[in-house]
Design a protein that fits this description.
Oligomer: single chain
Structural class: alpha/beta
CATH class: Alpha Beta
CATH superfamily: Spore Coat Polysaccharide Biosynthesis Protein SpsA, Chain A
Number of helices: 8
Number of domains: 1
Helix content: 40-55%
Shape: globular
CATH topology: Spore Coat Polysaccharide Biosynthesis Protein SpsA, Chain A
Number of strands: 7
Strand order of the largest sheet: 3-2-1-4-6-5-7
């Protein structure tokens, strides 16, 4: 961890107006504590609540914070890819804008950085509706079968990425499958992946879009596309 000199924190926004203030200020507090070169990259993915506009107003006096806007909703994976491309520092901590994941978990992930190219997370306990828990279990089981991985919870939206890794892996997914694509391609390219257990804090407002029928369909489509490509 001492060898790490710079960190970017990136998160997307969609229907996250209620949590964006919390995310910005918690991230700023953490980065100040870490005393590294740092930045916060926020991507508004065509948010109907204008979460990005609100984020920009909150961060006007913060020189290390940048808000990027998609003119229309392009998808969770597309928003993450935009954010990753804009990050300039050595390590990138990618999380979600709904505060489901604690940004302070970055400290745990950084402890694995010296031995990793990618650090992914798994949830100690899934505090969700039964339907979402079942979907997650099936999803992870299917990925283990198709891609011969042993990851415990590849769908968790909190990860630490070495920036140089992104130059060697071409990410194409626009759906929530992006996280799985990153972990699978990192493994297949022979780079080092480690896992860290975390606690989550499910949103208490609205519903997340990752388990919508549309996103489930797109995720399965991109999963099969990657499976066919790897097998060929």
């Amino acid at each position: 961890m001492k060898s790490i000199k710079s960190i970017s924190i990136v998160f997307p926004l969609y229907k996250d107006r209620r949590t964006v203030k919390k995310m910005i200020f918690r991230s700023q507090k953490l980065l100040k504590k870490l005393k590294k070169k740092s930045e916060i990259i926020i991507v508004d993915d065509g948010c109907p609540e204008k979460s990005g506009v609100y984020a920009k107003s909150l961060s006007q006096k913060m020189k290390n914070t940048k808000v990027i806007f998609h003119k229309k909703n392009m998808g969770y994976g597309a928003a993450i890819k935009t954010g990753l491309k804009k990050c300039k520092y050595e390590w990138i901590f990618q999380t979600d804008g709904d505060a489901e994941y604690d940004v302070n978990d970055l400290i745990k992930l950084l402890k694995k950085a010296d031995r990793s190219d990618l650090v992914i997370t798994y949830r100690f306990k899934k505090k969700y509706k039964t339907s979402r828990i079942i979907i997650s279990w099936i999803y992870n089981a299917l990925l283990r079968i198709l891609f011969h991985t042993q990851y415990r919870d590849i769908s968790t939206g909190s990860r630490l990425i070495k920036k140089t890794l992104l130059k060697k892996i071409n990410l194409i997914s626009d759906s929530p499958f992006l996280g799985a694509e990153l972990a699978i391609k990192t493994k297949y390219k022979g780079f080092k992946v480690n896992e860290v257990g975390i606690h989550t804090y499910p949103r208490t407002f609205g519903t997340g879009s990752s388990v919508s029928i549309k996103n489930i369909f797109l995720t399965v489509k991109e999963m099969l596309k990657l499976f066919i490509k790897i097998k060929i």
